[in-house]
Write a structure and sequence with these properties.
serine/threonine-protein kinase; Phosphorylase Kinase, domain 1; Bud32; 221 residues; five-stranded antiparallel beta sheet
Length: 221
């Protein structure tokens, strides 16, 4: 298997058409606590991916048995700590925005598709927890949300609104994107994805924005 990335929480490998995410032991944690955290986070991430599988907005998970035999004894494929997913080919949302930053109509259309998927995610009462342009892939015209390692189940409107706030802040930092000028199309797309609570979540987002601006002013002052 080829190592693709080593993050704070897990190491990600590619094996042919599959991605394997392994939560490796952390020596700075007490062993029993570390084991419990890795097990619970792996179990939760699998459950979140299964929960939205029917929406086709995330990688599909597979049993470890689909992988060929691995000779590297240092790689532990214990399913309590590892997830096997389909490998998705495509570019990140960040790459797409930077490459097409001068094409306003394309950006509006693209972000509308992305916000619809985020709405679908929130409609399943899932909060991503690390929603950034690097965790959104564009695969043959389809939007895929990846890396739900910090995700959780939540029916709190506030949690979904914070998810949106974090995402829009990272979007606006790219190539001078101004979301306010696209808000009507984006909001309609989000509501289309999150039919039951979309409007309420967007209302809460306005409150979250105000709090964010107030914190920024206080920090400057």
């Amino acid at each position: 298997m080829k190592s693709l990335s080593i993050g704070a929480e897990a190491t990600v490998y590619r094996n042919n058409n599959y991605i394997v995410k392994i939560r490796t032991p952390k020596k700075y944690r007490i062993s029993e606590i570390d084991t419990s955290i890795r097990k619970s986070r792996t179990k939760l991430e699998k459950m979140l991916l299964k929960r939205i599988e029917h929406l086709d907005i995330s990688p599909k998970i597979h049993d470890m048995s689909v992988l060929p035999e691995i000779s590297d004894s240092t790689i532990c494929l214990d399913e309590k700590y590892a997830i096997c997913m389909e490998h998705l080919e495509g570019e990140t949302l960040k790459e797409a925005i930077i490459k097409n930053s001068t094409d306003a109509s394309y950006i509006i259309s693209l972000l509308s598709d992305v916000y619809k998927c985020i709405g679908q995610l929130h409609g399943q009462q899932i909060v991503h927890g690390d929603l950034t342009p690097n965790n959104v892939l564009l695969c043959s015209g389809k939007v895929k949300i990846i890396d739900l390692g910090l995700g959780k189940i939540s029916n709190k409107i506030e949690d979904s609104a914070v998810d949106l706030y974090v995402f829009e802040r990272t979007i606006m930092s790219l190539a001078g994107i101004v979301l306010e000028s696209m808000s009507e199309a984006i909001e309609a797309a989000y509501i289309n994805g999150n039919v039951k609570k979309g409007k309420e979540t967007l209302g809460k987002l306005k409150e979250v924005r105000r709090r964010g601006r107030k914190r920024e002013l206080n920090a400057v002052g």
